[in-house]
């Protein structure tokens, strides 16, 4: 297993470098010049100022040289300097990463738990009213845009009922500590995590339901039944476990999409994560910061995928760690 | 009652400020919205709107300006001008200290100016006429100009010329100086904490040089990126102040009606934001003055004001906003007249050539305005193609002159020499830059008038020159002036004296207090 992990990590590093190079060129293909954005924000624009900014950003150097400097930095774990924010990129991302991890992992847990639970019930009671109700419920959250669910949540739970805070990570100025602080953060987390989680829950529900119905028809389930095992044991131990493989695959793929969804969720709920950092960096053409966020997101996706491969083995021992 | 009248009443209510007569109370915390999150707080290094809004509490300039743009003392307690209008002597206030306790002296002024010449494009332009600066003693600064420069006393507010602590910046790499993110100024509030993506916290400066001020204990700037979420934050009582431009304009009437809410349009006199359409004068149909005039007649600017901007603002008459010096409305008028527009287009031989329109990607209000203008122009027979971009993409297209019509709005900084001429003089035609003469208008007479106007004396001569320039420009229509914008500040009525100068919220909260 160790050699499998080592090989996957090595491959991951190569993929990461390829992503860095690709992204480096991709973001420069987008129209918009960081120096002009900054000059525009300053409400003034003269040749000297724009030239100074280009020199500061290193944009006056030839593109291959810029790429070389950047890749050299990444290899030595230096993600560069955001001249717009006047701070090292790693520091900026480090400040925001915990909030994004908290949000995405909570949303991930919500979506996976509820998705598998609802999917199992829907499959167990396939063709009944409960099945239809679960499917409709899941599809509603899948069909509605995340920002809309977010705004409606704010309207209902913050403005009308005043149950939950409408924005932020914590109550500003409350200076809470310990358990009180954790409760405060949890209250702020509920709406963004549910918004993001419910969207992805739908796919897990559908996937679990479909997969379980398929497995249910297989011979070994009939054998289990013939052996006289109880329905609950058959569902849990034989059907669900075998039906989970495609769900695990989907969860691995979703790890990247979750971060994409977090951009919108973080913006609407003013959640101070890297999704928003990425969005602001994109609008301002803050190349180094944008590339830095891409590197971190790519590393996260690769890590999630590695975890997915390891979970495969747990779910289905027949799968071997092929090199 | 029509919406705009109702809103007008709210504005009047806000402006009446009965609190002026009340004795200020000390203590309390204000939560205000800031958007987008400032990239840094070192005003000498970055000068965008949010930076100015937060840092205007931390840093100070030598002067402030009244709503009528008369200079007021801040770090300079007095000033005098020589008879030949070439020597300006500022006497600095004594006993002023930086937040770290070090004294503020003339050496700081001298250092700040040298730094700003390298980091602050507008300051560099403003200081172009300065021949030398002397500091005969610790509390005196003497500026000697190459020639008289009419708007010179108007360039010393905190956003245009913030004072920087020499002892913390001299000899360091300015761009990586750690104080950029934990700034030290002389202002009424001190930087305390910045939770990136969440809030910026400022606390009262107990050693502030104006005795008894500031009245508030703390100011929190809350960072909320979504406009709808900002409205909700105000509605649910989480924030007390929505500075101008924080919410979409169509939310302003609704929020204005909330209990204990006051609204004011004051505090933008220095900036006087003027919205217009860049018209690419270089090629195609827009190179013909008659087509540009037709555009002025074709656009229903009253509709834009009343419907899109909810009655806020004023229809512009020309290149100068009515709130800045030497404005005149004695210029050619362009009422909404589609028939006249059609006639002018016919006369110019316009045959339906495609015109590319770039709306401004500043949110929903601007998108709607783009649609309304497109419809107005189509109604008179023009073929309009809307090009959608984000701000960065739009700026690049404009700076490379790759557009036909493009929305913008710019500040005027109180004087035509500072904020008007830059958009019309031919020496400011330079590809690759925004907010200069990107329309490519070139008129030697206008060049001459703006060159003379900046240095002319006395004031009556300047007035004469700028009035003439306005008449010529309005006849030529190098750009299509739309509206003098108004960005109302929405706040709880218990917040008193928030806006006391022509720079508004950007001038800091030093006079503000809470009527608890």
UniProtKB/TrEMBL annotation, chain A:
SUPFAM superfamilies: MetI-like
Cell compartment(s), UniProt: Cell membrane
Membrane-crossing segments per the record: 12-30, 101-122, 134-157, 189-207, 243-269, 289-312
Pfam family, one: BPD_transp_1
InterPro entries xref list: BPD_transp_1_N, MetI-like, MetI-like_sf
Signal peptide: none
Residue intervals of the ABC transmembrane type-1 domain: 97-308
PROSITE patterns per record: ABC_TM1 (PS50928)
Predominant subcellular localization, coarse grouping: membrane
Keyword vocabulary terms for this entry: Cell membrane, Membrane, Transmembrane, Transmembrane helix, Transport
Membrane topology: Multi-pass membrane protein
UniProt record similarity statement: Belongs to the binding-protein-dependent transport system permease family.
Protein's name according to its UniProt entry: ABC transporter permease
The species this protein was found in: Bradyrhizobium agreste
UniProtKB/TrEMBL annotation, chain B:
Signal peptide feature range: 1-21
Location relative to the cell: Periplasm
Top-level taxon of origin: Bacteria
InterPro entries in alphabetical order: Peptide/Ni-bd, SBP_5, SBP_5_dom
Domain Solute-binding protein family: from-to ranges: 71-416
Keyword annotations: Signal
Family stated for the protein in its record: Belongs to the bacterial solute-binding protein 5 family.
Protein name: ABC transporter substrate-binding protein
Taxonomic placement: Bacteria, Pseudomonadati, Pseudomonadota, Alphaproteobacteria, Hyphomicrobiales
């Amino acid at each position: 297993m160790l050699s499998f992990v080592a090989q996957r990590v090595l491959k991951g590093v190569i993929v990461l470098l390829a992503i860095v190079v690709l992204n480096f060129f991709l973001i420069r293909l987008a129209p918009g010049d960081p120096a002009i954005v900054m000059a525009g924000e300053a409400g003034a624009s003269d040749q000297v100022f724009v030239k100074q900014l280009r020199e500061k950003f290193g944009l006056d150097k030839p593109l291959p040289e810029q790429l070389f400097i950047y890749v050299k930095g990444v290899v030595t774990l230096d993600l560069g300097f955001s001249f717009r924010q006047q701070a090292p990129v790693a520091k900026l991302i480090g400040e925001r990463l915990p909030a994004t991890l908290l949000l995405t992992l909570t949303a991930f847990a919500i979506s996976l738990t509820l998705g598998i639970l609802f999917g199992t019930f829907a499959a167990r009671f396939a063709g009944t009213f409960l099945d239809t109700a679960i499917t409709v419920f899941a599809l509603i959250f899948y069909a509605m845009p995340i920002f809309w669910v977010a705004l409606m949540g704010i309207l209902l739970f913050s403005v009308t009922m005043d149950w939950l805070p409408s924005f932020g990570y914590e109550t500003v100025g409350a200076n809470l500590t310990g358990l009180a602080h954790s409760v405060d953060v949890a209250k702020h987390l509920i709406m963004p995590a549910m918004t993001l989680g419910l969207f992805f829950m739908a796919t897990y529900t559908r996937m679990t339901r479909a997969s379980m119905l398929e497995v249910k028809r297989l011979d070994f389930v009939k054998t289990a039944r013939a052996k006289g095992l109880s329905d609950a044991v058959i569902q849990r131990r034989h059907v669900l476990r075998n039906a989970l493989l495609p769900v695990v695959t989907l969860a691995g793929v979703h790890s990247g999409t979750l971060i994409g969804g977090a951009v919108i969720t973080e913006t609407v709920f003013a959640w101070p994560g890297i999704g928003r950092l990425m969005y602001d960096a994109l609008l301002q053409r803050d190349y180094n910061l944008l590339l830095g966020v891409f590197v971190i997101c790519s590393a996260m996706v690769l890590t999630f995928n590695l975890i997915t491969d390891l979970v495969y083995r747990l779910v289905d021992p027949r799968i071997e760690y092929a090199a | 009652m029509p919406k705009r009248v109702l809103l007008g009443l709210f504005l009047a209510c806000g402006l009446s400020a009965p609190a002026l007569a009340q004795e200020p109370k000390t203590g309390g915390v204000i939560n205000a919205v800031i958007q987008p999150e400032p990239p840094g707080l070192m005003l000498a290094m970055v000068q965008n709107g949010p930076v100015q809004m937060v840092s205007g509490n931390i840093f100070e300039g030598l002067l402030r300006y009244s709503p009528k743009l008369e200079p007021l003392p801040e770090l300079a307690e007095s000033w005098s001008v020589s008879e030949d209008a070439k020597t300006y002597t500022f006497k600095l206030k004594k006993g002023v200290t930086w937040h770290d306790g070090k004294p503020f002296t003339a050496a700081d002024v001298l250092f700040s100016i040298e730094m700003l010449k390298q980091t602050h494009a507008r300051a560099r332009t403003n200081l172009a006429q300065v021949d030398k600066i002397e500091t005969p003693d610790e509390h005196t600064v003497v500026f000697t100009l190459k020639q008289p420069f009419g708007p010179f006393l108007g360039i010393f507010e905190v956003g245009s010329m913030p004072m920087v602590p020499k002892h913390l910046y001299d000899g360091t790499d300015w761009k990586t100086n750690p104080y950029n993110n934990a700034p030290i100024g002389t202002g009424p509030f001190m930087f305390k904490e910045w939770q990136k993506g969440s809030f910026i916290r400022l606390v009262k400066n107990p050693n502030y040089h104006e005795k008894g001020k500031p009245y508030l204990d703390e100011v929190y700037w809350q960072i909320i990126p979504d406009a709808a979420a900002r409205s909700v934050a105000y509605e649910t009582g989480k924030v007390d102040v929505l500075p101008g431009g924080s919410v979409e304009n169509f939310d302003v009437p609704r929020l204005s009606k909330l209990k204990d809410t006051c609204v004011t349009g004051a505090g933008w006199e220095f900036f006087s934001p003027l919205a217009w359409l860049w018209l690419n004068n270089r090629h195609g149909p827009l190179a013909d003055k008659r087509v540009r005039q037709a555009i002025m007649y074709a656009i229903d600017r009253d509709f834009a004001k009343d419907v899109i901007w909810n009655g806020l603002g004023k229809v512009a008459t020309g290149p100068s906003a009515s709130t800045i010096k030497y404005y005149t409305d004695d210029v050619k008028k362009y009422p909404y007249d589609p028939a006249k527009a059609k006639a002018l287009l016919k006369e110019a031989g316009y045959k339906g050539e495609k015109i590319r329109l770039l709306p401004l990607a500043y949110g929903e209000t601007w998108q709607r305005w783009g649609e309304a203008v497109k419809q107005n122009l189509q109604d008179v027979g023009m073929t309009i193609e809307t090009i959608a971009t984000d701000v960065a993409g739009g700026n690049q297209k404009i700076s490379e002159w790759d557009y036909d019509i493009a929305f913008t709005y710019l500040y005027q900084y109180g004087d035509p020499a500072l904020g008007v001429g830059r958009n019309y003089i031919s020496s400011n035609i330079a590809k690759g830059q925004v907010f200069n003469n990107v329309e490519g208008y070139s008129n030697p007479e206008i060049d001459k008038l703006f060159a003379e106007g900046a240095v002319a004396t006395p004031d009556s001569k300047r007035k004469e020159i700028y009035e003439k320039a306005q008449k010529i420009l309005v006849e030529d229509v190098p750009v299509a002036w739309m509206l003098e914008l108004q960005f109302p500040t929405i706040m709880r009525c218990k917040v008193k004296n928030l806006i006391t100068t022509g720079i508004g919220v950007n001038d800091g909260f030093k006079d503000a207090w809470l009527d608890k």
